[in-house]
Amino acid sequence: MKVLAVTGGIGSGKSEVCRILADKGLTLQYNADSRAKALYVESPGLLCRIEASLGCRFRDEEGNFIPSRLAAVIFTDDGALEKVEALLFPEMIRDFHKVMEAAAEDQIVVFESATFLEKKQFDGFADIVLLVDAPFAMRLERACRRDGASKEAIMARMKSQRLMNELSEGHKDPRIDYTLLNISSRQELEQKVQDILSQIRNH
User: Fold this and answer.
1) What's the whole-number mean pLDDT along residues 67-91?
2) Which of 5, 8, 30, 112 is the most exposed place for a label (fewest CB within 10 A)?
3) What are the C-alpha distances in Å from 34 to residues 61, 67, 92, 150?
4) pTM above the 0.70 mark?
């Protein structure tokens, strides 16, 4: 069994690549962003530990988790983000291991994460790393169209992904096994995914 990490900056198209991978048989997938949101609710005591660590409450009067309250804190305070990730990531890794237990010995499991290369907790976590990339301006336009947000709001999020921006500018990272430049049609994107998948399976 192999773990294929698919990563990329906002608007790069990594989720679309994961959908194509699923169409081509890699159906066992783990989306780190969506699972993180679920773990705040599902993982016993996690939200309580986060609230205690930050000294803030992220639930309403009935005890329901309000993601926007947490986001407002961690997107403006790097120290708060580090505290949350120190509590969240061990839970996420345990959660992912449950998915791995369902995998066959010869199966490739996809782990999708926008911040995979930026977080030390994921060092050595994957057997194969695929970076999905596109020029900054193209990623900005795609993200604005997808989220219905202003350029200013998307650019603020993009600027926080410093490593992704450096890679788009040509910087190299030895942890990356394959780079997929997503700048063309859906048909060409599918062919690029197929070519990379063939290389992975041949190895």
Assistant:
1) 91
2) 30
3) 24, 12, 11, 23
4) yes
For the record, the structure tokens of 12 come out as 């790069």
Residue 5 backbone dihedrals phi, psi, to 5 degrees: -85, 125
Give me the residues paired with residue 129 across strands: 5
Rounded to a whole number of angstroms, the CA Rg of the chain reads 18
More confident site: 105 or 3: 3
Condensed to tens digits (0 to 9), the pLDDT of residues 160-178 reads 788 888 888 888 999 999 9
pLDDT tens per residue across span 107-122: 999 999 998 999 988 9
CA distance 178 to 184: 17
115: left (phi over 0), alpha (psi -120 to 50) or beta: alpha
End-to-end CA separation in angstroms for the chain: 13
